[in-house]
Design a protein that fits this description.
Shape: extended
Helix content: 25-40%
Largest sheet: 7 strands, antiparallel
Number of strands: 10
Radius of gyration: 32 Å
Number of helices: 5
Structural class: alpha+beta
Length: about 210
């Protein structure tokens, strides 16, 4: 019996393999690739915008207030606490501080404004009803201060101050007004049915230990 040369056998196997190969699908066109890239970029941009908007909207559920900060401003984590937050305009010397404080002595808003304004110059403002005050002042160090105070139903106070260099008043005045306008108060978590139930459950658990 004759044996076929090795080269001839390999040639036959290669031809058979080529015959069984699956056809390669058509490659997408340049236009299709470009369209897919544009769609991906648009989705990424929308996601980025949503994340930025979320980061600008500060909500303190525990203390019952929310505020929206200017685009591009950054949070000062070291100065922020569970009672409030500080945001800064990088490199410009402007900042916004919004904090909650307990009103143990049940002071009126007028008394609190007098205490807050102590040491400031050019204080000017108005009381809006019994539970809100808006005003402006100068801190005596070349900075203007826009302030808004809101008194919550339980007597606690939410204070928002927007401080910016006096020489940049034209740039910041409208921004300050918009930020202070965005400040809203609502029932703190502990005063909601859900929060009250949770506190009661925690107190019961602690008493049983």
């Amino acid at each position: 019996m004759k044996t076929a040369p090795l080269a001839a056998v390999l040639s036959v196997l290669l031809l058979a393999a080529c015959g069984r190969a699956e056809p390669v699908g058509d490659m997408p066109s340049q236009e299709e690739l470009a369209a897919a890239a544009n769609a991906a970029a648009a989705n990424a941009l929308e996601s980025q915008k949503a994340e930025e908007a979320e980061s600008r909207n500060y909500v303190n559920i525990e203390r019952g207030f929310s505020v929206t900060f200017p685009e591009g401003w950054t949070k000062d984590g070291a100065a922020s606490t569970a009672d409030g937050v500080v945001y800064q305009d990088p490199g410009a010397g402007a900042d916004v501080r919004v904090f909650w404080q307990k009103n143990d002595n049940d002071q009126t808003l007028q008394q609190i404004v007098e205490a807050v304004s102590s040491g400031s110059e050019g204080v000017d403002g108005d009381f809006i009803g019994d539970n809100e005050y808006r005003g402006t002042a100068n801190d005596g160090e070349g900075n203007n201060v826009a302030i808004r105070l809101l008194k919550q139903p339980d007597g606690s106070i939410v204070t928002a101050t927007f401080v910016y260099p006096e020489m940049l008043s034209e740039q910041y005045q409208a921004i300050a007004e918009k930020v202070l306008d965005s400040l809203k108060i609502f029932a703190p978590k502990a005063q909601t049915p859900e929060g009250g139930a949770a506190e009661a459950a925690n107190a019961t658990a602690a008493a049983g230990r």
